[in-house]
Write a structure and sequence with these properties.
The protein has 205 residues and is of the alpha/beta class. The chain is built from seven helices and nine strands; from the N terminus they run αααβαβαββαβββαββ. The strands form two sheets. A seven-stranded mixed sheet has the order 3-2-1-4-5-9-8, sandwiched between helices. Strands 6-7 form a two-stranded antiparallel ribbon. The radius of gyration is 16 Å and the shape is globular.
Length: 205
């Protein structure tokens, strides 16, 4: 991780990342994630047999996916060691690494981020897009905060820790073999709230 250490990596790998875990584990989130991924799988018309999540935290997304697809092979990349330990205790394949330093020869039916690209150093995005594209056999899911133009937002009173932009649009521009398959919005006041996430499913041609 030292090769590409950034302010953002240090923040999430350290104590603030530990505190994030406590704020984001709940039964309500599990129910919301079940609805979220059920809708996604319905849109693509299949349940993926292999899934890679970049920025998996403690596996709240994986718990929902495994409930919907018990046979799916799930691999999570996570920089925070406390979260990695909890991922492994839950029975998931967990790799402790920053996204910037992670690489693999494996390929997955679905590769996704959910509330993660917004927290990366913007200078890391091009290489991260390349990894999302490379690691995916067919499907890429991006669930993030959307803005038509890049904008920085304070996160818990601190600058340079949250960025909104058109992540999916930038990927579509960068990789001509990608097609926008579907998209949607999960409102924080909805029956199954997802903190105002705009999601995009991209398909490799």
């Amino acid at each position: 991780m030292a090769n590409s250490e950034t302010h953002q990596i240090g923040f999430w790998a350290g104590n603030e990342g530990d505190l994030y875990i406590d704020r984001n584990v709940s039964g309500d989130l599990h129910a919301a994630n079940l609805k979220f991924f059920s809708d996604i799988f319905g849109r693509i018309g299949q349940v993926p047999s292999s899934v890679l999540e970049l920025g998996a935290n403690v596996g709240m997304n994986f718990k929902a996916i495994s409930a919907l697809a018990p046979e799916a092979a799930l691999t999570g990349v996570e920089v925070n060691k406390v979260a990695v330990q909890q991922l492994r205790e839950s029975g998931f394949n967990a790799i402790q690494s920053s996204i910037e330093d992670f690489d693999t020869q494996d390929r997955f039916d679905l590769v996704f981020t959910k509330g993660v690209l917004i927290h990366l150093n913007p200078e890391s995005l091009a290489s991260t897009y390349a990894k999302l594209h490379s690691f995916s056999k067919r499907w890429i899911l991006i669930g993030e905060y959307y803005s038509p133009r890049p904008v920085g937002v304070e996160y818990r009173g601190q600058p340079n820790l949250l960025f909104k932009r058109d992540f999916a649009g930038e990927m579509l521009d960068a990789f001509p073999d990608l097609k926008l398959h579907s998209y949607g919005f999960a409102y924080h006041r909805g029956a199954f709230p997802q903190d105002d996430i705009t999601w995009f499913v991209l398909e490799k041609q």
